[in-house]
Amino acid sequence: MYRCHFGKNERKELISTGNDIVDLSKIDNQRTAQPRFFGKMLVPAEIEMYNAHNELPFVTYVWLLWSIKESVFKFHKRNNPALHFAPRKTIVQELSVAPGAILQLNNVETVDYMYKADVSVRSVISLDGHTFYGTSYFYKDVIHSIAQAHRETETQWAIQRTDKDTYEEQSLAVRELFTKHFSYSNTERISVRKNEVGYPVVTVDGIVSNMPVSFSHHGNYVAFSCLPQKSDCVL
Amino acid sequence: MDRQVILEELKKVLAPYTVNKEALNSINEETSLTQDLKINSANLVDIIIDAENKYDIEIDMDAAEKINNVGSCIDVILEKMKEKN
């Protein structure tokens, strides 16, 4: 039996998950700081909002918002397959940076594997007439953002450092990370494939599960988020 | 400008962000940047800026959001070049 958590009042039409990671060591800081660059990612209100959060380096702020937007896109794509990623239509309305976030960002220890941590940033996002709730985690030079339909949803997630650098190797690594998250005796029963829209679908004993899962990778990190449903607890 | 010429030039624009050079060499207008070339979404703005520099155009995000494959990328470049002239 694996860990099962359920948020209250899940709206059936929005059962989904989305996550995104940004490895800041792979980011071009100079380029990010150019208005021409960040102006394609953020709307003026989001640029203005930085004044209230300037405890974060600006480049970190820009990529934090990008990772939040990307995680919301992945979440909503499952409900709206025709959706294209539109960073300036995915608006971060509110941002709340936890007191310990800067310490997490400046942590000297490299993260090798983690599946729980204190939330660094909470956010409220709007897209396509819907409101989403984001949680982001800072681990040294990595930002990991997860999108949820409700503030109180308990999404399961994990992140792992990898030396693999090709898409295929990282794709395999994130799938291994996901299956390892469950008890070892069950890993053979779980597999993941991409559907025609491009998001991952979990199968258990060859039967499609209704557990939404989202994979991400960037630089030297792979991560997933998932939202087990009650019917998945038979594993 | 001919679409095939732009397609060939786009290979150079996309090269720094594409690990699979074999896939890059065989792109066509249907090739998806993220699904087929496996370009990380974190590099999408880099590609737009590089294309702007290459063709001396400005690609606003409304236009950029239409880009999902090589063909739509060529459409946007041609549209913006036309607006410039």
Layout of helices and strands:
The complex is a heterodimer of chains A (235) and B (85).
Chain A: E1 18-23, H1 29-32, H2 35-38, H3 44-49, H4 58-77, E2 91-97, H5 101-105, E3 113-114, E4 121-127, E5 130-139, E6 142-148, E7 156-161, H6 167-181, E8 190-194, E9 200-204, E10 207-208, E11 213-218, E12 221-226
Antiparallel strand pairs in A: 1-6, 2-4, 3-7, 4-5, 5-6, 7-12, 8-9, 9-10, 11-12
Chain B: H1 3-14, H2 21-25, H3 44-55, H4 61-64, H5 70-84
Task: Describe what you observe in this structure.
The complex is a heterodimer of chains A (235) and B (85). Chain A has 6 helices and 12 strands. With 235 residues, chain A is an alpha+beta fold. The longest helix of chain A has 20 residues, at 58-77. Chain A has one domain (12-177, 213-234): Alpha-Beta Complex (Ribosomal Protein L22, Chain A). Chain A has helices spanning 29-32, 35-38, 44-49, 58-77, 101-105, 167-181, and strands at residues 18-23, 91-97, 113-114, 121-127, 130-139, 142-148, 156-161, 190-194, 200-204, 207-208, 213-218, 221-226. Chain B is mainly α and 85 residues long. Chain B has a single domain, classed as Non-ribosomal Peptide Synthetase Peptidyl Carrier Protein, Chain A. Chain B has 5 helices and no strands. The radius of gyration of chain B is 12 Å and the shape is globular. The two termini of chain B are 12 Å apart. In chain B, 28% of the residues are buried. The mean pLDDT of chain B is 91. The interface between A and B is medium-sized, with 25 and 17 residues.
